[in-house]
Design goal:
single chain, 198 residues, alpha/beta, five-stranded parallel beta sheet, 9 helices, 51% helix, globular
């Protein structure tokens, strides 16, 4: 199985795609991951990049995970960029996953706008959405003692990136990941409930 991750620092921080690979290995799933990510670049940047087009058309990926900007998020740009990239995806057998990020720590009130944009677009296009932003804040409410943010209060800590990877795993495979990590066992049911309710 092959998965391509396209995004920015919220994809490459802590090598999140590799954490996803490790979770797959723990669940006896052999996965190769590839990443195309540039700091503070949205999908409007990626839609014009030849390496994105080439990888989608010829990489023979099973899933392609797209992540747009966190700061400066704009629904119209998300919509137009994903639709442009989807034109390449539609020429392949790949399945598209929209990876919804979280807001910066001081702007939780903006999460609904971002979340609704991702969910509505996914429904309209008939693609999957990995609701990492919704899971993020649910986790923080349950475990306020655990720091999901990096010291800049914007990016993910290693724990935060791991939470994102578990959310993407649940989205793609439609089942809860087996894990010995008690921290993630405590949120696994919540992840499933959030995804099921979308």
């Amino acid at each position: 199985m092959k998965v391509l991750f396209i995004g920015n620092s919220h994809t490459y921080f802590n090598d999140m795609p590799y954490i996803f690979k490790l979770i797959c290995q723990e669940n006896n799933i052999d996965v190769d991951v590839t990443m195309i990510a540039h700091g503070y670049k949205g999908l409007d940047f990626h839609q014009k990049e030849p390496e994105v087009r080439f990888n989608i058309l010829y990489g023979k990926y099973d899933y392609i995970v797209l992540q747009h900007l966190q700061t400066g998020f704009d629904e119209e740009t998300l919509n137009s960029s994903v639709q442009a990239i989807k034109k390449y995806v539609d020429k392949t057998d790949s399945k598209l996953v929209l990876y919804m990020p979280w807001t910066i720590k001081s702007e939780r009130e903006k999460q609904k706008y971002m979340s609704d944009a991702y969910i509505n677009l996914a429904k309209r296009l008939g693609v999957l959405v990995a609701p990492a932003g919704l899971v993020w804040w649910e986790f923080k409410d349950i475990h306020p003692e655990v720091e999901l943010y990096f010291k800049d209060d914007k990016h993910a800590s290693e724990i935060g990136s791991t939470l994102v990877a578990y959310t993407i795993y649940r989205t793609i495979f439609n089942r809860v990941a087996n894990t010995k990590n008690e921290l993630y066992l405590s949120i696994n049911d919540k992840i499933q409930k959030i995804i099921t309710n979308i």
